[in-house]
Design a protein that fits this description.
CATH class of the largest domain: Alpha Beta
Distance between the termini: 59 Å
Mean pLDDT: 87
Number of strands: 15
Radius of gyration: 27 Å
Strand order of the largest sheet: 12-11-10-9-13-14-15
Helix content: 25-40%
Largest sheet: 7 strands, mixed
Strand content: 25-35%
Amino acid sequence: MSHTLLTNIIGPESKGLTAAVTRILADYETGTGSLEQSVFQNIVCLALRIEVSELDAANTVMTNISALCDERDLTCNFHDCWLETGSLDTELKKFVVTLLSHEITHQQVLKVNQILADHGVIISSIKDLTNDEPLNLKSTSKRISSCLELQASAVSVNRDLLKEALLEVSDELTLDIVVQPNSVYRRHRRLAVFDMDSTLIKAEVIDLLADAAGVGHKVAEITERAMQGELDFNESFRERLAMLKGLDESVLVGIAENLKIMDGAERLISSLNKLGYTTAILSGGFTYFARYLQAKLGVDHIYANELEILDGKVTGVVKGGIVNAERKAELLKKLAADEGINLDQSIAIGDGANDLLMLDAAGLGVAFRAKPLVKQKANYSVSTLGLDSTLYLLGLSEKEIRALHD
């Protein structure tokens, strides 16, 4: 049998507190299963789990720690229970919960915290990533921040049920809520891959080409159904492409030169480049436009469909295999292997059903301004802010992001 004391000490910052507590523990047959200490605005909080073999020893430990706290004007409390040795799973699962919105309010924070509590998740700290000042939840201002990072933990949690509850409230509050395991890889990713159409750019290029060919309505309808996952991607792609037969190559030049870059794309990729990431475009669109973006944004690799052009005209067919959902996932894995990068260190961002396999394979797979089906199936989704909000998901603060570009 083992006697377990779950102990919390809180009060004014006290020099040598940890040393004094461990000195008490050293006088008895005790073990410290875990210990965490934090100091915020001169208030110390020390939490530890103590294993004691005998009840008398446990009582003495509690008495001596209580006396130490009285001397230092600290408050302490104990939760003790007899357990079979090793029967208490004290290895809490740790998470990072990131809130993203143009205007995060007190009510939004309250609502999210309540849902987390209902699912057994405990918040240990809240950090404002967009402002340099400490977070002030008592501010009279309605807007708190654009990004809050919550450190959280739970003994156990049903992630599917939690995701469902958070996804429902995120639509209601116009708030993105991203819950990630707090793993060693979160701040140490090394590879980032992107879908192109409606992710890096604000358009589906094939729809723009179709407009120029006079078949815009027909192609747009097929594109929408394909991105929703209602049609086979390869079949719908060939059907749409065939409608472009005879289109003059000069049209492609004009479209490429006038592509609208997605909000935050340039800032995100330039930041990742400065951090030493390998970057790539994995697109079900066309290399003709991916090359343009590669040069403009500074992307390392591109993989897309090769549009066949003969005598200055689009033939309506593609050269080689189609870059579909399976191919995107394969390319992500190949890039990681070629670079010697663990897949957990990869980021993938896309918006369509043909991105889901890629998003699932990546360590951080983000459905960006995605279709409802994709948001529901992806592990993570962001819709309110620009692409550069991905940097917050890596744990970078606004101050750190600005420092990359100074």
